[in-house]
């Protein structure tokens, strides 16, 4: 059997090409990333109830949590079902609750994660107040909190919806709604 030269040349080129592709080093695959080891807890507390006093000896803030876990590698703390109360001299406290929380090493920042509810009962000079949002950043020593998430405020029959909020809880307490503010007010 006699093959034409072009077919024979094509078979030789294909064989050489196959040999060359097989001999070229395949790209190195990076080793699979090893999962980081779980963070170690050096202590935990169940049923946390801590009160910080003001300079006048009155309660300034109270922090309750179902569980607290401290991590020595970065000196941070995680909270399960935290409840932060910011006490007032002239009225009922502001109560902030969430699903979980994280506290920075120096205690200057608390991140409240998941659903967050802020309430204040009615007092002599204020109506009852309830605010619902998600993912709140709290600076406890300044009695300040903020979020970029949607916010829903209720006070008796009044309703306000917005996106983003800044809140100052020290007297005179005030809340600034940042965008897309829509409300319904019922006159007294």
SSE blueprint and pairings:
Elements: H1 5-23, E1 43-53, E2 59-71, E3 76-80, E4 83-88, E5 91-103, E6 110-120, E7 129-139, E8 144-155, E9 158-168, E10 174-184
Antiparallel strand pairs: 1-2, 2-3, 2-4, 3-5, 4-5, 5-6, 6-7, 7-8, 8-9, 9-10
* Rg calculated over all Cα atoms: 31 Å
In round numbers, the mean pLDDT is 86
Helix content: 10-25%
CATH 2nd-level architecture of the domain at 81-184: Sandwich
Could you give the order of the helices and strands?
Answer: HEEEEEEEEEE
Under CATH, the homologous superfamily of the domain at 81-184 reads: Lipopolysaccharide (LPS) transport protein A like domain
Number of helices: 1
Main sheet record: 10 strands, antiparallel
Detailed description of the structure:
- There is one protein chain.
- This protein is mainly β and 188 residues long.
- It has a domain at 81-184: lipopolysaccharide transport protein A fold (Sandwich).
- It is built from one helix and ten strands, in the order H-E-E-E-E-E-E-E-E-E-E.
- Strand 4 (83-88) and strand 5 (91-103) form a beta hairpin.
- The termini are far apart.
């Amino acid at each position: 059997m006699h093959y034409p030269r072009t077919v024979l040349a094509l078979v030789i080129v294909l064989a050489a090409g196959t040999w060359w592709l097989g001999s070229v080093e395949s790209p190195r695959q990076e080793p699979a990333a090893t999962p980081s080891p779980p963070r170690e807890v050096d202590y935990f507390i169940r049923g946390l109830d801590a009160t910080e006093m003001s300079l006048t000896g009155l309660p300034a803030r109270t922090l309750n949590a179902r569980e607290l876990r401290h991590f020595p590698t970065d000196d941070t703390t995680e909270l399960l079902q935290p409840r932060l109360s910011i006490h007032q001299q002239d009225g009922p406290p502001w109560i902030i609750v969430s699903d979980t929380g994280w506290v920075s090493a120096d205690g200057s920042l608390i991140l409240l994660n998941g659903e967050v509810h802020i309430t204040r009962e009615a007092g002599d000079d204020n109506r009852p107040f309830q605010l619902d949002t998600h993912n709140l950043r709290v600076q406890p020593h300044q009695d300040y909190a903020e979020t970029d998430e949607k916010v829903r405020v209720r006070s008796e029959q009044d309703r306000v919806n917005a996106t983003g909020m800044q809140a100052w809880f020290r007297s005179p307490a005030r809340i600034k709604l940042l965008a897309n503010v829509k409300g319904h007010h019922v006159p007294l």
